[in-house]
Amino acid sequence: MKTIKNLLFSCISMSVMLISCNQKTAEPNTLSDKEQAEGWVLLFDGKSLDRWHVYNQTENNPAWVIKDGAIYCDPNNQSNKGDLVSNESYQNYEFQFDWKLEKEGNSGIFINVQEKPEIDATWQSGPEYQLLEDSHADFAIPQKKAGCLYTFLPQQNFVNTKSKGEWNRSKIIQKDGKVTFMLNDKITAEMDFNSDKWKNMVQQSHFKDFPEFGKNTSGKIALQDWSRGVSFRNLKIKTL
Question: Is the distance from CB of 81 to CB of 225 less than 8 angstroms?
Answer without folding.
Answer: yes
